[in-house]
Amino acid sequence: xxxxxxxxxxxxxxxxxxxxxxxxxxxxxxxxxxxxxxxxxxxxxxxxxxxxxxxxxxxxxxxxxxxxxxxxxxxxxxxxxxxxxxxxxxxxxxxxxxxxxxxxxxxxxxxxxxxxxxxxxxxxxxxxxxxxxxxxxxxxxxxxxxxxxxxxxxxxxxxxxxxxxxxxxxxxxxxxxxxxxxxxxxxxxxxxxxxxxxxxxxxxxxxxxxxxxxxxxxxxxxxxxxxxxxxxxxxxxxxxxxxxxxxxxxxxxxxxxxxxxxxxxxxxxxxxxxxxxxxxxxxxxxxxxxxxxxxxxxxxxxxxxxxxxxxxxxxxxxxxxxxxxxxxxxxxxxxxxxxxxxxxxxxxxxxxxxxxxxxxxxxxxxxxxxxxxxxxxxxxxxxxxxxxxxxxxxxxxxxxxxxxxxxxxxxxxxxxxxxxxxxxxxxxxxxxxxxxxxxxxxxxxxxxxxxxxxxxxxxxxxxxxxxxxxxxxxxxxxxxxxxxxxxxxxxxxxxxxxxxxxxxxxxxxxxxxxxxxxxxxxxxxxxxxxxxxxxxxxxxxxxxxxxxxxx
Length: 551
Known about the structure:
By secondary structure, the chain is of the alpha/beta class. It has helices spanning 34-37, 41-46, 145-160, 176-189, 223-234, 310-314, 326-332, 343-363, 369-380, 403-407, 409-413, 418-422, 502-527, 546-549, and strands at 9-10, 53-55, 58-64, 78-85, 94-98, 123-124, 135-141, 166-172, 197-202, 207-209, 215-218, 253-257, 261-263, 295-298, 335-342, 386-388, 392-393, 442-444, 449-451, 454-456, 472-473, 485-486, 498-499, 535-539, 542-544.
């Protein structure tokens, strides 16, 4: 079943304070530096992915011939060590940073004493779609505060890994005042990441109507198909070319995501690298998104849509959907986000999806109705999807997702723990297209993740998380995935622990640690723009423990 509830670009600021584990927070940095420098030179040279080390009272930045953090071309050769005396004494959680130049205020990240260090955001242009895929990511939201913070996080996650192409948030049902607020906020906080990050507003679509057209309820997931179609017809650079009758930019690949997703790897139209791809079939037929060849993440929907009243839903007694047998249905149609198709194909699907979804919901007025409607629309148009499993992880207890990449991550990175890998500043190379270590493309954080007394659940995230005054998340210990128990939320104490399998611990730990890092990075990036009387005041205290503080 679905696992929902159940690019001009600046370089993102990076910070080892995000990596400072709970178990080491108050430890002294009094270790001798001699033992580090007695390491063989060959070992240092082998650490080509490591961008930052902290030895005793000094920070050492490994210098590369050319940097390859998050996707830049590089020769990856370490050419020296730069020693910088630490400025930190006791950690201060609230600081003010005076701008050296008012015009550059937004190009400064916060200077945080106690580990974050200071970094000036570098002005660079993104290596966009030149020589790469022409991708346009879209995701559908309403105008609630709940999906406001998720939208910021999704944009930032794409920005931090330098995802090529454009990204558009489709926001449905905003009031006039709400639209003005969202548009202003987007221009101030999202556009600073990329001029290609957009927001598209649509009418309210989620009303459920009876046969007479009278409102009788609300199904918010109508926004996805109807918002998508509205954007395809009215969005910037979209619509039908009046001269050709074809969709503008019809060769562009549209990737439809959910707002509660963060990107770990580039979304691409090319699935030919067997090492980086997991597919349910050992004999895949196609390897690239093209006209007539859409791809999508496999979901546990089965072939249940074949049992719906297809005559009524499609209004076509000869609909191709009726000719799809069980095996074909299982092989090509149990799909969900990320969905990938060319603009031409996505437009055709969206039109039928919008037509069919009210009828599917009338027959099946439950969660997943719009997903079954997508399956029927694709089958009706004879657009079988190539299924992939690695583009998402979400539910730690099931197969058919990218968990095999997570399960083997420590082995491949030669780290003891997945949390050590995913919360360490040296792992940025994992997100680069050139990395030989596979990761899931996105984390779909729509479940509840608990390990030990650490928790992440999207519905518990404070809606004002991305503000100047809100603290960051407390950082889990590096060995979190070694915990073999969990304590139910709302309860505290080792006596209440419940056993957790090793596999589940690795997977829960992966999500908790990765989402914590990305949310903290995103929060710091937001805070780099906080202004007050020519200064920036930010709260960078890593103090919010969702398990302890939010129940």
